[in-house]
Amino acid sequence: MSIDMMGTREADDNKTAETQCRNCGSFVTPQFTRVFGNNQNVVFGCFECMTATDVKRGSANDPEDAARARKEMQ
Ligand SMILES: [Zn+2]
Known about the structure:
Pfam family, one: DUF7563
Oligomer: single chain
Bound molecules: zinc ion
Number of strands: 0
Protein name: Small CPxCG-related zinc finger protein
Order of helices and strands: HHH
Radius of gyration: 12 Å
Strand content: under 5%
Distance between the termini: 38 Å
Organism: Haladaptatus pallidirubidus
C-alpha cells in the first residue's frame, strides 16, 4: 500500500485525518493525528516542532497550547 501525497482520499476512511502538522508542515501519520489531534483531526504540533512530552500532554490539539509549548522549547 502506498501513501498518495497528492491528497487522494480513501473512500473507506469516513473521517479523514490530516497528514501534515499545521505548525511546521512536517508529515505526520493519520494515526498520529487521530490520537493527538483535535476533533477535526488536525494537529498543531508534532514531534518535529514540539517535545514528545508536550505532544503526549495534548498540546498538539490546541493552537495556543502548541504555541506555548514551542516557546518553552527554545
Ligand atoms: Zn510540527
